[in-house]
Amino acid sequence: MANNLRQQALECLLITDPLIKVEQTFQLYKQWQEGELELSHEELNVPDMPGHPDKPELVAAKDLPRRRNSAKTGNATLIHAITHIEFNAINLAWDAVARFPNLPRQFYDDWVRVAFEEAEHFTLLRNHLLSLGYDYGDFPAHTGMWEMAQKTHHDPLIRMALVPRVLEARGLDVTPKMMNKLRGSGDHRAVEILEIILKEEIGHVKIGTHWFNYLCDKRNLDSLSTFKDLLDNYFDGKLRGPFNIEARLQAGFTDAEMALLES
């Protein structure tokens, strides 16, 4: 089992120390690229919650203090919030690899690469946070992304529809506005990091789109009506704009899907 990718992904998912998790992610990516790991498809016992450090304190999104710039913290609370999203994204990628067997090898190729890129994003953001005098864990963070992971653990089609194509796609919508805010405050390094992240997140959402469409095809489902039904069931059909239409189209959303979201 030691050289089984999916078992290794599960072990990485369970690591609580963020820096060890990142280091192990880089190691696993390298081993997979170099053909040192096998792919087997047995069911693994993947828990509902990934490994998480003692800090940050996790609270419901509605209980999170509003992020206001202050003379003391500056942009640190905003950078911390994005760092937390990237930490969650590492876990979400490894969860997809470990949780869902019997998919094409390309599925695992894609999500291993996503885990690697999210770990790079986390590292860039944490290093910037350190330069501001703070570290990951210094502010509370919300549980929203993982709540949706739990709601979609039973079906890779629903996971692909709602985590990459809703939650992560939201990042495509809000990142340009965050970049403007950071640019206005003179934090040009943060803007550079978010430019890298935005470009790569388009690719991650596109991967989610590809596998959502693949699974719809395999089940003879119409992808547009399936996506609409899932939005109705899980989000009451309500997703707030404005949407970054250009980025979403690059990430594989169709004109019909964009019309659905905007309606």
Explain how this protein is built.
By secondary structure, this protein is mainly alpha-helical. It has one domain. Helices cover 65% and strands 2% of the residues. It contains 10 helices and 2 strands. α3 (76-99) runs antiparallel to α4, α5 packs antiparallel against α6 and α6 runs antiparallel to α7 (188-218). The longest helix has 31 residues, at 188-218. The protein starts with a helix and ends with a helix. The mean pLDDT is 92.
Report a brief summary of the structure.
With 263 residues, the protein is mostly helical.
Helix segment tally: 10
For the biggest β-sheet, the strand order reads: 1-2
Overall number of structural domains: 1
Distance between the ends: 49 Å
Please state the overall shape, judged from the principal axes of the Cα atoms.
globular
Helix content: 55-70%
* Model regions low in confidence, pLDDT < 50 over at least 5 residues: none
Structural class designation: mainly alpha
Order of helices and strands: HHEHHEHHHHHH
Q: Main beta sheet, described? A: 2 strands, parallel
Beta strand count: 2
